[in-house]
Amino acid sequence: MLLNGIYLKERWLTVSEERLREAIDTLKDSGVRITPQRHAVLEYLLNAMVHPTADEIYKALEGKFPNMSVATVYNNLRVLKEIGLVRELTYGDSSSRFDCNTSDHYHIICEACGKIVDFHYPSLDEVESLAEQVTGFDVSHHRLEVYGKCDGCQKLPAQKH
Ligand SMILES: [Zn+2]
Ligand SMILES: [Zn+2]
């Protein structure tokens, strides 16, 4: 049991380390300077496998970089976004979330705690071509979100209002 746990943990670390190495290579290829903070932001995003806000990233890293500000985190995220390593998910309330999984995937969002989880489903390309035909728009992308209550929140006793 214990051995199995250690094995899984090491495997997980290896996978994210490989992704980090690839991401660093992409940074180098783009001629972007790799500062310790930038490295840390990227590493945090890859390891967290969640969709944190800039504030959450800041809070997770401020112990390691006492001189870092939220603005620095935003700046680094903007750079990572520009070279396509990070995707920004805006929700119209200024609390953007950041996703380092840039492969095609959809999101399911918990209405109770706000958690965002990735799931894979064949890309709905026909929606894009239909939208183009019907509206004459030049479609760039689409976003699909599914809402509900996550496993953890379903187990909590119902909130009384
Ligand atoms: Zn939840
Ligand atoms: Zn995602």
Automatic annotation (TrEMBL):
<keyword id="KW-0805">Transcription regulation</keyword>
<dbReference type="InterPro" id="IPR036390">
    <property type="entry name" value="WH_DNA-bd_sf"/>
</dbReference>
<dbReference type="InterPro" id="IPR036388">
    <property type="entry name" value="WH-like_DNA-bd_sf"/>
</dbReference>
<dbReference type="InterPro" id="IPR002481">
    <property type="entry name" value="FUR"/>
</dbReference>
<protein>
    <submittedName>
        <fullName>Peroxide-responsive transcriptional repressor PerR</fullName>
    </submittedName>
</protein>
<keyword id="KW-0678">Repressor</keyword>
<dbReference type="InterPro" id="IPR043135">
    <property type="entry name" value="Fur_C"/>
</dbReference>
<dbReference type="Pfam" id="PF01475">
    <property type="entry name" value="FUR"/>
</dbReference>
<keyword id="KW-0862">Zinc</keyword>
<keyword id="KW-0804">Transcription</keyword>
<comment type="similarity">
    <text>Belongs to the Fur family.</text>
</comment>
<keyword id="KW-0238">DNA-binding</keyword>
